[in-house]
């Protein structure tokens, strides 16, 4: 989301052709193929998730609502963010010159595609982090306080939290360009997507610096809290499993312990947290390196696109960890499988 390097696509034509993803025609084709496959994987996986969650009464729960919100955020990346990069790269590969708008930042023209795509990517990333945090809170209450789960976690409260997370995340996403005239958006030739950057060449002014720090501060705070809560929940699950092996469960004990489905869901959310942390860590390393003055052009490409691939991981995790989700998804896809079998 944050990129402090100044040259844009056409200003850095030589560098653009020398990055590891674009050194040769074969590399360019592989890069575009990867982006196209990412679009299809993101759309397919998250549409399946939405169909399962919205079309199955069993998933009409606070947890299901949060998973649907996460799927919508991931869908937006596949619909808006990645296709713009595909267009720019295919245009560059076919004509051997980048689209005209990539040679300017958003301050230099009246309309720039990155004015829309940049905040969408940043906002959806923040929504994903916030949603995973809410999922972790929801599961921790189910595991640590099972008797209070239904009274504390309601669909109405969850819906309000989802709306607030979207509004707050996109507010943070537009803050850099709304509250600072020194920050612009550009299509960066290193990351191959829309990034925030300084509108003028030079060191970071203090105001712009403080605004850009909102992103890592927000992300690291929520991710850190999410990891801590997951550790507490999983530790409680482990202790419960040990007690269950050694003690005969009385009727009163069975009413206060977390259910098997709650334990299973908590482990699934823990897996989601690990996956997102792994995908976000390269961005964290890149931002720190950028602050220290390192360009890391090649690493920038991998960092941003590893984060983008996180948009298609969730459905895989659900399918592996959640048997009910997997069975429902199989039922939804069965008619398409039968049609293909009939044709062959």
UniProtKB/TrEMBL annotation:
PANTHER family in the cross-refs: HISTAMINE RECEPTOR-RELATED G-PROTEIN COUPLED RECEPTOR (PTHR24249), TRACE AMINE-ASSOCIATED RECEPTOR 5 (PTHR24249:SF307)
Location in or out of the cell: Cell membrane
One Gene Ontology term, aspect cellular component: plasma membrane
UniProt entry keywords in alphabetical sequence: Cell membrane, G-protein coupled receptor, Membrane, Receptor, Transducer, Transmembrane, Transmembrane helix
Topology in membrane: Multi-pass membrane protein
The keyword Membrane is assigned to this record: yes
Domain G-protein coupled receptors family 1 profile: 45-318
Keyword field contains Metal-binding: no
Listed name of the protein: Trace amine-associated receptor 8b-like
Family matches, as Pfam families: 7tm_1
Family: Belongs to the G-protein coupled receptor 1 family.
Transmembrane segments: 29-53, 65-88, 116-137, 158-179, 211-237, 269-293, 299-320
Gene Ontology molecular function, alphabetical: trace-amine receptor activity
Coarse class of the protein's main subcellular location: membrane
Record Gene3D superfamilies: Rhodopsin 7-helix transmembrane proteins
PROSITE patterns associated with the record: G_PROTEIN_RECEP_F1_1, G_PROTEIN_RECEP_F1_2
């Amino acid at each position: 989301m944050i990129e402090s390097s100044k040259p844009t696509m056409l200003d850095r034509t030589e560098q653009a052709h020398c990055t590891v993803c674009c050194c040769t025609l074969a590399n360019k084709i592989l890069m575009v193929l990867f982006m196209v496959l990412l679009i299809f994987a993101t759309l397919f996986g998250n549409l399946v998730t939405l169909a399962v969650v919205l079309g199955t009464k069993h998933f009409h729960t606070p947890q299901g609502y949060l998973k649907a919100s996460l799927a919508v955020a991931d869908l937006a990346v596949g619909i808006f963010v990645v296709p713009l990069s595909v267009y720019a790269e295919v245009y560059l590969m076919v004509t051997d010159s980048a689209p005209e708008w990539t040679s300017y930042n958003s301050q230099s023209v009246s309309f720039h595609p990155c004015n829309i795509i940049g905040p969408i990517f940043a906002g959806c990333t923040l929504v994903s982090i916030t949603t995973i945090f809410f999922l972790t809170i929801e599961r921790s209450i189910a595991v640590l306080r099972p008797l209070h789960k239904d009274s504390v976690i309601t669909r109405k409260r969850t819906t309000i939290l989802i709306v607030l997370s979207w509004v707050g995340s996109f507010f943070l996403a537009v803050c850099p360009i709304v509250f600072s005239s020194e920050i612009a958006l550009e299509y960066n030739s290193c990351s191959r997507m829309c990034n925030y950057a300084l509108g003028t060449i030079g060191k970071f002014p203090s105001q712009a610096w403080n605004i850009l720090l909102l992103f890592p501060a927000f992300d690291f705070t929520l991710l850190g809290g999410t990891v801590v809560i997951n550790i507490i929940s999983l530790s409680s699950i482990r202790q419960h499993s040990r007690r269950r092996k050694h003690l005969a469960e009385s009727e009163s004990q069975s009413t206060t312990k977390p259910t098997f489905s709650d334990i299973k869901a908590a482990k699934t959310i823990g897996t989601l947290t690990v996956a997102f942390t792994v995908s976000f860590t390269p961005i964290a390393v890149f931002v720190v390196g950028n602050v220290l003055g390192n360009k890391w052009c090649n690493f920038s490409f991998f960092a941003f696109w590893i984060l983008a691939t996180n948009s298609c991981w969730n459905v895989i995790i659900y399918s592996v960890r959640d048997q009910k989700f997997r069975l429902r998804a199989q039922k939804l896809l069965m008619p398409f499988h039968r049609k293909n079998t009939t044709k062959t």
